[in-house]
Amino acid sequence: MNTAASNLLPKKVTEAIKSVVGVNPADLHEPEFVGNEWNYLKDCLDTGYVSSVGQYVDRFERNLESFTGAKHAIAVVNGTSALHIALILAGIESGDEVLIPALTFVATANAVTYLGATPHFVDSERQTLGIDAQKLKNYLQSISKMQGNTSINRKTGRRIRAIVPMHTFGHPSDLTGLIEVANEFNLVLVEDAAESLGSRFNGSHTGTFGKLGILSFNGNKIITTGGGGAILTSDTELAMRAKQLTTTSKIPHKWEFRHSEIAYNYRLPNINAALGCAQIENVEFKIAAKRELYIKYYEVFSKIEGVHLMREPNGSLSNYWLQTLLIDDPSLKLRDEILEETNNAGYRTRPAWNLLSDLDQFGGSPKSDLTESHQLMNRIINLPSSPKLARIVTD
Amino acid sequence: MNTAASNLLPKKVTEAIKSVVGVNPADLHEPEFVGNEWNYLKDCLDTGYVSSVGQYVDRFERNLESFTGAKHAIAVVNGTSALHIALILAGIESGDEVLIPALTFVATANAVTYLGATPHFVDSERQTLGIDAQKLKNYLQSISKMQGNTSINRKTGRRIRAIVPMHTFGHPSDLTGLIEVANEFNLVLVEDAAESLGSRFNGSHTGTFGKLGILSFNGNKIITTGGGGAILTSDTELAMRAKQLTTTSKIPHKWEFRHSEIAYNYRLPNINAALGCAQIENVEFKIAAKRELYIKYYEVFSKIEGVHLMREPNGSLSNYWLQTLLIDDPSLKLRDEILEETNNAGYRTRPAWNLLSDLDQFGGSPKSDLTESHQLMNRIINLPSSPKLARIVTD
Hints:
The structure is a homodimer of 395-residue chains.
Chain A: H1 3-21, H2 37-47, H3 56-68, E1 72-76, H4 79-89, E2 97-101, H5 106-114, E3 118-122, H6 133-143, E4 144-147, E5 150-153, E6 159-163, H7 175-184, E7 188-192, E8 200-201, E9 204-205, E10 212-216, E11 229-233, H8 236-246, H9 270-280, H10 283-301, E12 307-309, E13 316-317, E14 324-327, H11 332-344, E15 350-351, H12 371-379, E16 380-382
Parallel strand pairs in A: 2-3, 2-6, 6-7, 7-10
Antiparallel strand pairs in A: 1-11, 4-5, 5-6, 8-9, 8-13, 10-11, 12-14, 14-16, 15-16
């Protein structure tokens, strides 16, 4: 594409967004409270159960289990804490390396460091925006060796213990490929499904393929509990340990306080779970709206040269949490011009995260070639994605 | 006291409780939502601001500042996370020892371990139920040495870095004595004021004497946010760091994601802060009720031989969060008989925590002589303490 054409893109993208969402300003993602939210919150106040006692935490966990098909869901205070506990239960120890995409939210890497382990950054692919399994396989073949059943990084000498794919903007990563890599190198698979509630891969819910998976219900997610998250697992023993570790490991007793191990206060309060119970009742409705919004955006963006709208990967059903535009030209300058123009017009667009491998605090972490991640970072723009935008009628 | 008299105590205590709180069952501590709780929660839903955006977090922090007199209050997701961050900001490093009472909730010790530091358990005193400052001073003189400005445990060789007094059941610890010890041994004072919102020592609010202090708003506390906590400090730089560390250290930018250091997701959601804003409007009312309840209990328990009601220490004003009965006879058997009898009668009483030094996970931690803590553990029974109980009229 020549420069002249590129320079028209910011305006064209802005016009395209306007043609879908209308002339009014649009946030990146707004929550909606159109169901039983108020009834359930009011019930918490009326009964006095807002905190660690009350029915909504159990109920929300059972709701999550039936919606995702996970055998066990353990509600916690946010996605980061869910990942922290999931990594402990996956057997990550101080000194281990954990493979994570460089292109993810900082929480994925932070949680690894809480255990004294080191994030090891790997490349993503255009097709899914998640870890490139084939490239990871080749990479591990070149940099690791097996010692017994353990994969060792030949350069650092550290054990490589787990892969944590993140299902970016709701699009499932290549789980078939990643499971193959995990098996070949004896790595534990822990899925960061913070963004992908409702997204399925080959018919099964994201977060249920790994030994453990995690969800987030932050305010910008497809459903929200204010702040909240959950751990998913099919392993009953791990589920019981997850509950213990997130609730100070108190040994049940009618009055005594005894705690069996060092643990955490990651309990989701009843009032936040109440919000979750109301929100999940409408999740299918929201996903449908988001998928419809994708079609609306597709209709306009397919006519614009120089950009492509991210589509759910083959074999996947995506919740389309954040609609994603990929600019053909991987120049940061063009990306920032589009961000500037669209935000100035009142449409809250945003780029992907800066690669975590480029942050000072992770400067010493090992990493593979990250060519595609860098390109994606320069090419990605998230568009206004609230479910309500699908219902706007424009001329 | 002879055994025959002791054996009458469980019944006498039960009758005494009944004479104060009436014949109906009474919880240990119930929250009350009698103010603007509904309005503020509804406002969150109506505006869509339930999570990290919204006015209530700021407002709750300013409310806490004006109520406690702390220069800065930083709201977080619970008391444990507040303590975790406060300890980081106090300069605790992996390998350090932190002096804490053996008689406290497990969170105090857990938070120390999150930093790779070791809890060092010290004895409490009858007068305050908090750390015995004089005994601590003697103990440190015998087991530590100064290396330059640093206090070193001569036995373990580790640096002793901080004292974390906990203001038990709302009664302020001996802050005068503890500040003196902190100065003599160059220790940082971090106050665990999880239970003492509204309690003052020499006229100033607990949690404002140390370099940092923390509060909790768990469901059983004097005010609740469902789950929540706060960090208090008069140091503006530490306050800014506390905000950064609890909100993933994101560098403010209109769309970019950059994070300056490894950090945490300990943000209090707006919806929980909204509850806090309503709750704190009534805190004085609740404290007054609790102080009145103390007087009612005092009237009946002062007539019973073999028990004493815990009274606020001299020079302190206590929030009387949990009313506390001290049995004269330090026998676990008698304590448990009273717990059994009162609970069977529908009155939720509970003992103090088992000493943390007796838990397996802290078995390797250093400790001073804990004679008084052991005695207190055997002697303490918390009584039903809800503010509403002060308003019950009995014959």
